Amino acid sequence: MALIPRPRRTVAPGAVLVPNWLDPDRQRMLVAACREWARGPVPMRAARLPTGHSMSVKTVCLGWHWQPYRYSRVAFDAGGGRVLPVPQWLAQLGKRAVADAYDDLQAGNAYQPDAALINFYDDAARMGMHRDQEERSAAPVVSLSIGDKCTFRFGNPETRGRPYSDVELCSGDLFVFGGPSRFAYHGVPKVFPRTANPECGLPSGRLNITLRVTGFEDQP
């Protein structure tokens, strides 16, 4: 029986979901790249919050190292190594993502991501409602999903509470948020185990690759 197609949709002004944007070959390539980055000079780790608690999501960064709630070139909280640069091919993928999501080639050409956060969610991982506000740029955030499905809760710029929309993100989906929604609260309240397409190259869990423009030229 044929699957019901999921149409692209605008979730909020400036926030666009493009289902199945990554084909299986591209997903497998990204999974392999993420494994290499996780073995790089800065290992994938669970960031520690100012409260002393560790996040349930594990993260490795490119370009700029993120830790709550700041960026640096050197991972002082994860061994002291310098993060790897954002590869040109990944930046180009981000440009195409913005162009396709907004149907705006000029916006895609202008997009210059200089940081990538790769988050790995196991069955129990969650991400609380938060805003991506450590950057000094209002350029869009590009989010790519690979692996298990999740509920992505996308809210508003004013509060962690309602109004928000719960969006199902599946392997290969693209979500871009910018403009009026650039600083909207968002989170992942649930991951659904064993829901990934086996062709994606990730046997379990969920990878989320987010590309950002930090606006930094040197140490923030």
UniProtKB/TrEMBL annotation:
Keyword entries, A-Z: Dioxygenase, Iron, Metal-binding, Oxidoreductase
Source superkingdom: Bacteria
GO BP of this protein: oxidative RNA demethylation
Presence of the UniProt keyword Oxidoreductase in the record: yes
All copies of domain Fe2OG dioxygenase, residue ranges: 112-215
Stored InterPro entries: Alkb, AlkB-like, AlkB-like_sf, Oxoglu/Fe-dep_dioxygenase_dom
Binding locations of Fe cation: H130, D132, H186
Details of cofactor binding: Binds 1 Fe(2+) ion per subunit.
Protein name: Alpha-ketoglutarate-dependent dioxygenase AlkB
Organism: Rhodococcus xishaensis
